[in-house]
Give the backbone structure.
Amino acid sequence: MQALEKAATYLNYIRGEWTASATGQTESSINPANRNEVVGRFQSSDARDVDLAVAAAKAAQQAWRRLPAPARGEFLYKAANAIERRLDEIALTMTREMGKTLPEAKGETARGVALLRYYAGEGMRKVGDVIPSTDGEALMYTTRVPLGVVGVITPWNFPVAIPIWKMAPALVYGNTVVLKPAQETSITAALVVECFAEAGFPAGVVNLVTGRGSLIGPALTDHPDVQAITFTGSNEVGKLIGRKALERGAKYQLEMGGKNPVIVLPDADLQLAVEATISGGLRSTGQKCTATSRVFVHKGIYEQFKALLVEKTMQLKLGNGLEPGVWMGPCSSERQLDTVLSYIDKGVAEGAELLCGGKRPAEDGLADGFYVEPTIFDKVDPASTIAQEEIFGPVLALIEVGSLQEALDKANDIHLGLSASIFTKDIGSMLSFINEMDAGLVRVNAETAGVELQAPFGGMKQSSSHSREQGQAAMEFFTAVKTVFIKA
Ligand code: NAP
Ligand code: MG
């Protein structure tokens, strides 16, 4: 165990310098597997630090946008190499800081490397079209230009991948950035930014300011020199950011919650459907925005599915994500644990039947961590709280249905629409699901949680601001289209 006095202090990164906050204050980042372990201390910044970072990003903007895009891409390749070199250290820090298992943390860090290489390559790809003009002597075409300074606000659940899938396209398309990561994962963010610093980006192109979202978030989102905000996090904060950005005419992109359904039909591969429901719903302690949370199972297979699901869930090994063999770590924070436990209480109060889990584990050695048992509810009313609100924890709600249509109607009867999946061998059922399911990501015979970096990602309904991230879709947000007409 690392004692408080031994934990390192991490700084903000502004204008190419590691800088202490003007407040002179720091906060501790705690290991959720052991509340007594401090992973490190980060700057508890205020608006003064944000102002400096935005000024640095603004000052760096012109030279950065004038660099050819392939040259900007070269910096991303170097950042990718730096992260790859430090992959084990970054993954270990991520596990210690937010609790996901080490293999998952390594996988996510490797994803960060792949994202950087993908967007480095974007620097060599086309950004416009030639469009025939009605004037035979003119050339008309579109090109794409950067927006300017982009504010990047990120959550703790993918503390490497999300900052990178926002910063990498922002940078390669010629923007400069100020990153404000979630407090819970400020140290992991600092390591990622160290890798950007190692890559030698010109001073001010990449900036990091850590601290309380309610304080420095508005300082960033309301700043007149910030032309765009890209945000991933809760619906509550997202809507606030969207309203404020709209008011001052800034571009914004919000990726928010999900309440993702899986539909299991009688012809499904039962084993596969159960494994995918467990993996989609409980891996990473259910703390993925694409996590499965509502499970609509056809009555023809319901009892078998339920029995196998409970049997396999009871076998999952809970513990510190650093230990080999552990399948599920703790909730990322005490606040998150309290939220999950309060939803479990609500599920019971609203009449759902608890099949397994539902409480903090009693095992020795887990008492100091923010652990909760993987939890399955049966006989869940699709209109009840646990079937309507995002829990962001390892809780599955089982709902029996009589037909695919009933499953689709109930699955769509909600304000969110991020991802969804179906298990069936019937092509007609697959097509009905693909056509009718309100979700930005629909998957057939695969779990709801699963994103490929080269494909667009984002939700329908209130899960997003209706733009998409990742793949070439990122260009839509991080650039503006300029239509050019030239007559010689
Ligand atoms: P959150 O509370 O909304 O926080 C997200 C970020 O916003 C954090 O950096 C937070 O800082 C900051 N923030 C807080 N208040 C702010 C304000 N007034 N202005 C500007 N920024 C502010 O969300 P979270 O609890 O960290 O993350 C969980 C949520 O993220 C879930 O709802 C999940 O579904 C969603 N999520 C969505 C996706 C997706 O792609 N759709 C991916 C992952 C997660 P602090 O750290 O100081 O609070
Ligand atoms: Mg933490």
